[in-house]
Amino acid sequence: MQIPWFSNTREGLVHLGRPFVKMHGLRNDFVIVDGRQDPFHLSINEIIQICDRHQGVGADELLIVEPPRTPETYAFIRIINPDGREVEACGNATRCIGWLLLKESDQEELRIQTLGGVLTCSLAGEKQVSVEMGKIMTDWQDIPLSEKMDTLHLNIEAGPLKDPVGMNIGNPHAVFFVEDVDAIDLPKYGKALQTHPIFPEEANIGVAQLLNSKTLKLSVWERPGVLTTACGTGACVAVAAAHRRGLTREKTMTVIMPAGSVTIELKDQNIAVMTGPVEFCYVGYLL
Predict the structure, then answer these.
(1) Which residue out of 51, 96, 121, 231 is catalytically annotated?
(2) For domain 4-133+276-286, which architecture applies?
(3) In the chain, N or C terminus with fewer CB closer than 10 Å?
């Protein structure tokens, strides 16, 4: 295994099982397996068990590092939800993977590929990583929606949540602006909005409150149906949604989520750069 923390422990211990690394970004936690030299394939039931917090290691997602598929990238990353469904992007996961691979390669910048596209990662301080998350797409076909609709004002609602902004940054999002995030019972409405017929691939549901021109407060209901403590892609699109609605002109904003904050910078061509913390938890073996 090429993840550096196993370099002194692997010999004589391989029989224990498949090595993994456990990390989290703002309490969004991941089981990370290196499948570059030895491919790693699991059934849906095995993935569910690994991510289960009572029967397995416990994680919000399983991440598998695979060989690069293009010459300009360092690795390909598979991002798998705890229900076994593979997804296109995850900002917190990208920061964690980016940090591991930057340390492994002794580089200050590298590019990794996911189903959502190629992402550039760079070190931004002690256990701080910046990720160029790619272009935020706003056309209805790109989100995607099941029918043509103005993505600046989606015609869907649930309870107090109305008039969201639709976007895609490797995965689909709808962002609702409210006066008080803490007053919204997002678990009550999140599932119905996530699976609304307008979203053929479902969507992540964000609820955002503009605190000032440079600060947003955000809560996100994520596919496959969880209230997350932090969502990197959700933070990116929330800032972009505030710009699209004319709520702020600031290109760099702090996004406060239940587990902590990230900084989002909007660059030319609607490209978002996210900077935030990562934390190494432990290593182990999958039996």
Answers:
(1) 231
(2) Roll (3.10)
(3) C
